[in-house]
Amino acid sequence: MANHSFRLNDLIEQYCAPEWRELMNSRNTRNTYRKGEAIFKQGEVADKMYMIEQGRIKVVASYVEGRDRIVRLAADGEVLGHRGIGTNLIYTANVIALSETEVNIIPMSLFLSVLKANNLFCYHFLLFFVDELRVLDQQARDILNMTVTQRVVKALRMNMDAFGFDERDKKRLAFTISRKEIAQIADTTYESVIRSLAELQQQGLIVLTGKQIRILKKKELLALLNG
């Protein structure tokens, strides 16, 4: 399972030399994106690294023309743009704000220099990268091997892991992604998501209140992923 609360700033603080930390702080800029606004798009030149200061985003990959799949949800402190690192610096997904989102921006050239100059930082960043790729590989296998309802449950788990629960209502998701977005994670149709959520509610595992979802029996719900 990937570290859904990966914090780039923690690695920078622990494993970067002070002069590199100061340089990144001095070169950091901050920008705010509205709900629905793209932070960057698939195919664009990857010239910046982003870290969420506050907000919620979805990472959407287009594998077939006209068919998008959400491969990641992310919140405060998490890193964006790292999949653009390579011999060709190109972003491989669309990153879109789910709510008003404030991000810190570091030039990619500076970030790559930091990786080269700080071995421990590079090593731990690589571990995060590999762990995330394993999760993406598992997601691809799950689409082939899981039922639609299991895939919907997995999308709910991704929602829980990324955004948590409401502080006042411990069973209500702090932020509920849309039914369409659940379908884009589960690689199914909107109608199938509606049916699966209704079945889960009939089983007493969740409660649907408008667009919001309350998880009544988290343990039993996630047990469905095991068969």
Report on the structure:
The chain is of the alpha+beta class. It folds into two domains: 129 residues, Jelly Rolls (Sandwich), CATH 2.60.120.10; 81 residues, Arc Repressor Mutant, subunit A (Orthogonal Bundle), CATH 1.10.10.10. It contains eight helices and ten strands. The strands form three sheets. A four-stranded antiparallel sheet has the order 1-8-3-6. A four-stranded antiparallel sheet has the order 2-7-4-5. The chain has a two-stranded antiparallel sheet with strand order 9-10. Helix 3 crosses helix 4 and helix 5 packs across helix 6. The longest helix has 27 residues.
Keywords:
elongated; Arc Repressor Mutant, subunit A; alpha+beta; 4-stranded antiparallel beta sheet; 227 residues; 8 helices; 2 domains; disordered N terminus; Jelly Rolls
**Helical content band:** 40-55%
Mean pLDDT: 92
CATH level 1 name of the largest domain:
Mainly Beta
Low-confidence stretches: 1-5
Counting DSSP E segments of at least 2 residues, the number of strands comes to 10
Shape: elongated
CATH topology of the largest domain: Jelly Rolls
The total count of helices amounts to 8
The CATH architecture category of the largest domain equals Sandwich
Largest sheet: 4 strands, antiparallel
Strand order of the largest sheet: 1-8-3-6
**Radius of gyration over all CA atoms, rounded:** 18 Å
Instruction: Give the DSSP E fraction (strand runs of 2 or more residues).
Output: 15-25%
Strand-pairing-aware structural class: alpha+beta
User: In whole angstroms, how far apart are the ends?
Assistant: 18 Å
Report the oligomer. Answer: single chain
The CATH superfamily of the largest domain is identified as Jelly Rolls
Order of helices and strands: HHEEEEEEEEHHHHHEEH
Total domain modules = 2
